[in-house]
C-alpha cells in the first residue's frame, strides 16, 4: 500500500532546486517541493509527501488528524515510515 504522509518543513535546503528538509515522526529527509512551488512554502509549513515529493500544502490541523488516523492503520503506517526513512533526494 502506498500512502501520502504529512511532514513538516524544517528548512529549505536548496530553493533553486526546490529541495526542502522535512520531518515525519522524528525522521528527517530531503524531498522535492517542485510540485507545490507556487504555494510559497517556508519552515514550519506542512505538506503531504509521497515517494519523495510534496503533493500539496496542508494545514497543521489536517496534518495532525491525518497522522493520528495513519498511526491507527498499524503496519501500513510503519511500512510507509520505514520507506520514508530509507530514501532521500541528494
Description:
The chain is of the alpha+beta class. The chain has a single domain (5-85), classed as SH3 type barrels, CATH 2.30.30. 27% of the residues lie in helices and 37% in strands. The chain has helices spanning 60-72, 75-85; strands spanning 5-14, 19-24, 27-32, 46-50, 53-58. It is globular.
Topology, pairings included?
Layout: E1 5-14, E2 19-24, E3 27-32, E4 46-50, E5 53-58, H1 60-72, H2 75-85
Antiparallel strand pairs: 1-2, 1-4, 2-3, 4-5
Radius of gyration over all CA atoms, rounded: 12 Å
Q: What fraction of residues sit in β-strands?
A: 35-45%
Mean pLDDT score, rounded?
87
Percent of residues in helical segments?
25-40%
Q: What structural class results from the helix and strand content?
A: alpha+beta
Q: Which regions are unreliable across 5 or more consecutive residues at pLDDT < 50?
A: none
Largest sheet: 5 strands, antiparallel
Give me the CATH architecture, please.
Roll
Question: What is the CATH class name?
Answer: Mainly Beta
Q: How far from one another are the termini? A: 25 Å
Number of DSSP-assigned strands: 5
Q: What spatial order of strands do you see in the largest sheet?
A: 3-2-1-4-5
User: What overall form do the CA principal axes indicate?
Assistant: globular
String of helices and strands? EEEEEHH
Q: What name is given to the CATH topology?
A: SH3 type barrels
Please indicate the count of domains.
1
Helix segment tally: 2
Concise account of the structure shown:
By secondary structure, the chain is α+β, with helices and mostly antiparallel strands. It has two helices and five strands. The longest helix has 13 residues.
Amino acid at each position: 500500500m502506498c500512502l501520502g504522509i504529512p511532514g513538516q518543513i524544517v528548512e529549505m535546503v536548496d530553493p533553486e532546486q526546490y529541495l526542502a528538509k522535512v520531518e515525519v515522526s522524528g525522521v528527517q529527509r530531503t524531498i522535492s517541493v517542485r510540485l507545490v512551488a507556487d504555494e510559497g512554502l517556508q519552515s514550519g509549513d506542512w505538506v503531504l509527501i509521497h515517494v519523495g515529493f510534496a503533493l500539496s500544502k496542508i494545514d497543521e490541523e489536517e496534518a495532525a488528524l491525518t497522522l493520528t488516523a495513519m498511526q491507527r492503520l498499524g503496519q501500513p503506517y510503519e511500512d510507509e515510515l520505514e520507506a520514508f526513512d530509507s530514501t532521500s533526494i541528494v
